[in-house]
């Protein structure tokens, strides 16, 4: 077994509000809320309400996108009732203690936002022409599989690569991150790192970039994931975890083999000069098969190019090789779908995208066909025997 194939870890945030994990959550789900379920097939005729004016436990977009999955009797009730029903459902995904943690996190975020002075204010509202390369803008405006295919390559199944960010935007982002790190150093403010595997880097959502990244996900990533990742909730992405990671001397060196706590991950290199740091992919796996061996056609290594984006399923096992010299900064957006997570928790079969499940099913089909063939041969021969 190569060093890439050690057990895949689950890369998680310590502060997320949507982790589906832990037996505690499952037990609670079975006893308290068994009658409260979303519909499996959405009511696409329904026009969702806006929840932006309310003070809510979760992003307002999550409520709007969940609405068409509500059972008919709840769908017909008033907004307050709907909010209560949806909040209850979403809270089921929070392990014990996570609620107060979520509250503490919002206080933490507020403390940063009121004290940190941004360097480039223009970064905080998404201005597409200042952010994206023209080819990307054109494809998004046309918003068809054909237009996406014209700018996106798929060098390995499930790994999509395309030019996305302008060099000037990457520079601004790098400068903003550096400015934030400088503020952290000067004020000795203890910040939370992006996840359990990176000691360096910063959570962009924590210092004011969350609404900009929300817009980025909704208007520029979701149209793409709707086409290429519909099997993992690509059409219903409604929350994100946005951060930068830093590699090189005095930073993180490499990143072990893992899967992300996301439905779809966007990974864009911001720069700068560096050697190494390749991203290695080793096939997509469900929870049950996360540590099964890699097949030769699942091996793919990608070398980062500043401004270029990689889009892959969170369950696509991957890691980063050592950045041997220079300094590399990547921006990550873990995109999540509350609808997908809710449906997945009610359905056993939900992993058409898992390489191993796929093989198991194929073998099973082969065995069934074999049995049928034998039976037929026997039936045909029977009269002559
Ligand atoms: Fe990752
Ligand atoms: Zn599987």
Describe this protein with a few key phrases:
5-stranded mixed sheet, alpha+beta, 8-stranded antiparallel sheet, globular, Jelly Rolls, binds fe (ii) ion, 385 residues, dioxygenase activity, 2 domains, binds zinc ion, metal-binding
Commentary on this structure:
The protein is of the alpha+beta class. 38% of the residues lie in helices and 20% in strands. It has helices spanning 23-32, 60-66, 72-75, 79-91, 98-115, 128-131, 134-142, 145-151, 167-187, 210-228, 338-346, 355-381, and strands spanning 9-11, 153-156, 159-163, 202-203, 239-248, 255-260, 264-271, 274-276, 279-284, 299-302, 308-313, 316-320, 323-336. The strands form 2 sheets. Strands 2, 3, 4, 5, 7, 8, 11 and 13 form an 8-stranded antiparallel sheet that branches. Strand 2 (153-156) and strand 3 form a beta hairpin. The longest helix has 27 residues, at 355-381. The N and C termini lie far apart (52 Å). Residues 14-34 have low confidence and may be disordered. It binds fe (ii) ion and zinc ion. Fe (ii) ion (FE2) binds next to strand 6. Pfam families: OGFOD2-like (PF25238).
> Helix proportion of residues, in percent?
25-40%
The main sheet comes to: 8 strands, antiparallel
Multimerization status: single chain
Q: Specify the CATH homologous superfamily of the largest domain.
A: q2cbj1_9rhob like domain
CATH C-level class of the largest domain: Mainly Beta
Over the alpha carbons, how many angstroms does the gyration radius reach? 23 Å
CATH topology of the largest domain: Jelly Rolls
Alpha-carbon distance between the two ends: 52 Å
Would you report the number of β strands?
Answer: 13
Bound molecules: fe (ii) ion, zinc ion
The proportion of residues in beta strands is: 15-25%
Structural class by sheet pairing and helices: alpha+beta
Mean pLDDT: 87
Shape: globular
H/E topology pattern:
EHHHHHHHHEEHEHEEEEEEEEEHH
Would you identify the regions where 5 or more consecutive residues have pLDDT less than 50? 14-34
What is the overall number of helices?
Answer: 12
Number of domains: 2
So, CATH architecture of the largest domain? Sandwich
InterPro entries: Oxoglu/Fe-dep_dioxygenase_dom, Pro_4_hyd_alph
Pfam families: OGFOD2-like
GO molecular function, one term: L-ascorbic acid binding
Cofactor: L-ascorbate
């Amino acid at each position: 077994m190569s060093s890439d194939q050690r057990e895949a870890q689950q890369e998680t945030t310590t502060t997320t509000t949507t982790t589906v994990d832990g037996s505690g959550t499952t037990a609670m789900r079975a006893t308290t809320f068994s009658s409260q379920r979303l519909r499996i097939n959405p009511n696409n005729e329904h026009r969702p309400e806006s929840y932006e004016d309310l003070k809510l436990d979760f992003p307002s977009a999550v409520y709007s996108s969940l609405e068409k999955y509500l059972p008919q009797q709840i769908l017909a009730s008033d907004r307050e009732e709907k909010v209560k029903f949806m909040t209850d459902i979403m809270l089921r995904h929070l392990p014990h203690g996570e609620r107060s943690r979520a509250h503490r996190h919002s206080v933490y975020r507020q403390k940063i936002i009121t004290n940190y002075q941004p360097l480039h204010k223009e970064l905080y509202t998404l201005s597409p022409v200042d952010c994206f390369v023209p080819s990307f803008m054109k494809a998004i405006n046309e918003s068809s599989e054909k237009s996406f295919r014209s700018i996106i390559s798929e060098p390995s199944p499930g790994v999509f690569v395309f030019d996305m960010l302008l060099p000037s935007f990457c520079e601004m982002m790098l400068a903003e991150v550096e400015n934030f790190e400088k503020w952290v150093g000067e004020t000795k403010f203890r910040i939370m790192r992006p996840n359990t595997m990176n000691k360096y880097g910063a959570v962009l959502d924590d210092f004011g970039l969350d609404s900009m990244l929300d817009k980025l996900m909704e208007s520029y990533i979701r149209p793409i994931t709707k086409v290429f990742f519909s099997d993992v909730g690509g059409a219903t992405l409604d929350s994100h975890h946005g951060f930068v990671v830093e590699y090189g001397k005095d930073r993180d060196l490499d990143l072990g083999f893992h899967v992300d706590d996301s439905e779809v991950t966007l990974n864009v290199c911001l720069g700068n000069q560096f050697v190494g740091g390749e991203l290695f992919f080793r096939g997509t796996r469900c929870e049950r098969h996360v540590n099964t061996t890699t097949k030769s056609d699942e091996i793919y290594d990608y070398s980062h190019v500043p401004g270029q984006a990689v889009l892959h399923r969170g369950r696509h096992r991957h890691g980063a090789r050592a950045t041997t010299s220079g300094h590399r900064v990547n921006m990550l957006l873990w995109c999540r779908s509350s609808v997908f997570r809710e449906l997945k928790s009610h359905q056993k079969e939900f992993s058409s995208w898992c390489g191993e499940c796929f093989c198991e099913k194929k073998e099973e089909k082969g065995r069934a066909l074999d049995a049928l063939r034998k039976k037929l041969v026997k039936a045909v021969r029977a009269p002559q025997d």
